[in-house]
Specification:
alpha+beta, paralog of FGE (formylglycine-generating enzyme)
Length: 283
C-alpha cells in the first residue's frame, strides 16, 4: 500500500573537521562522519510562495496527462500555502535514508521489530520500508538519535535559500527516483521500484544529504498544524498524524519539491514507499 492510497488524499504538494586553520563557516558546515552530515544552525522557510506554487501547478498539469491536469489545482497543494520562517539549531543528520542493513542490525540487537518489507533480506543498500512510526522511533533511539522535525528536515534539504528542489530551482528528473501519475513507477530514472541509497548523487542537498527528493517518503516527528488538520477532512487531532516529506518512487516529479508534504497516521500503517532517516543532537 502506498502513502497516498492509505490516506485517501493527494500528496500535499511537490567529520567534524579539524578546527585549526578552518573558518567559522567551514567548521559549521563540516561533515560529522561518512554516514552523517552536520547541519549548521540557521533560518529556514517552510511552505511555498505564490510563484513557486504556480510553477508546481504547471508541473503537475504537464505530468498528469491521464486526466488532462484537471486535478492539478491550488487545493492539491494547500498543505504548502502557509509560509513561515523557523530558526533551527545545529544538528547532524543521516547522509542516506536508513538501509535494510542498518535496520537488520537493530533487529538482531533486539531493539527493533522486523519490518514488513517482503524483501528485507535482500539488497542491503536499499532503504528499509514497512516501518511504522513506533518502529522508526525505536530505530533512531537505538542509533543514538531521533526522528527529524519537519523544520530540521527542511533545513537539511533547502539550505540557506528557498530552492525548489534539494539541488536547485530547475526540475531535473535524473536527480531522483520518482514515479508518474497516477502513482505508477517510472523506470526512466533508471530504477523500477526503490533505489539503493545514494544512487542519485546529483540530487544531494546543499549540505550533501542524499535522497531527500524521491525514493521513499520519510517520517518526521512533527504532527500537522491546525490548518493541516482542516485539509484532512472530518474530526481529527494532531496526535493522530505525522508529516511525511520527500516524495517517493511512486509519486510524480512534483512531489520531489522541497515543500511537498503528506500526512500519515502513525499507528499500524506501514507502506511500501515510506522510510526514514535520523537526526542527532550535537554537543
Amino acid at each position: 500500500m502506498n502513502v497516498a492510497r492509505s490516506l485517501g488524499v493527494a500528496s500535499m504538494g511537490l567529520v567534524l573537521l579539524a578546527l585549526s586553520g578552518r573558518s567559522a563557516d567551514a567548521q559549521r558546515r563540516a561533515v560529522v562522519g561518512g554516514e552523517r552530515v552536520g547541519i549548521p544552525s540557521g533560518d529556514v522557510v517552510l511552505g511555498a510562495r505564490e510563484d513557486a506554487l504556480r510553477a508546481a501547478i504547471d508541473l503537475c498539469r504537464r505530468e498528469s496527462r491521464f486526466d488532462g491536469g484537471a486535478s492539478c489545482t491550488l487545493e492539491r497543494f494547500a498543505g504548502e500555502l502557509r509560509t513561515r520562517i523557523a530558526h533551527v539549531g545545529a544538528f547532524a543528520i543521516d547522509r542516506y535514508e536508513v538501509t535494510r542493513e542498518r535496520h537488520r542490525a537493530c533487529v538482531l540487537a533486539g531493539s527493533c521489530r522486523p519490518s514488513r518489507d517482503p524483501e528485507s533480506e535482500a539488497g542491503e543498500r536499499l532503504p528499509v520500508v514497512g516501518i511504522d512510526l513506533a518502529g522508526a522511533e525505536a530505530f533512531c533511539a537505538h542509533a543514538g538519535g531521533r526522528l527529524p522535525s519537519e523544520e530540521e528536515w527542511t533545513r537539511a534539504a533547502r539550505g540557506d535559500d528557498e530552492r525548489i528542489f534539494p539541488w536547485g530551482n530547475s526540475l531535473d528528473v535524473s536527480r531522483g527516483n520518482h514515479g508518474r501519475p497516477p502513482l505508477i513507477e517510472d523506470p526512466s530514472d533508471g530504477f523500477v521500484g526503490v533505489a539503493p541509497a545514494g544512487s542519485f548523487p546529483g540530487g544531494a542537498s546543499p549540505f550533501g544529504v542524499h535522497d531527500l527528493a524521491g525514493n521513499v517518503w520519510e517520517w518526521t516527528s512533527s504532527p500537522p498544524s491546525d490548518d493541516d488538520l482542516a485539509l484532512l477532512g472530518g474530526p481529527a487531532t494532531a496526535s493522530a498524524y505525522r508529516v511525511l516529506r520527500g516524495g517517493s518512487f511512486l509519486h510524480p516529479a512534483y512531489a520531489m519539491r522541497v515543500t511537498a508534504r503528506n500526512f500519515l497516521a502513525p499507528v499500524d500503517l506501514r507502506t511500501a514507499d515510506l522510510g526514514m532517516r535520523c537526526v542527532y543532537d550535537l554537543p
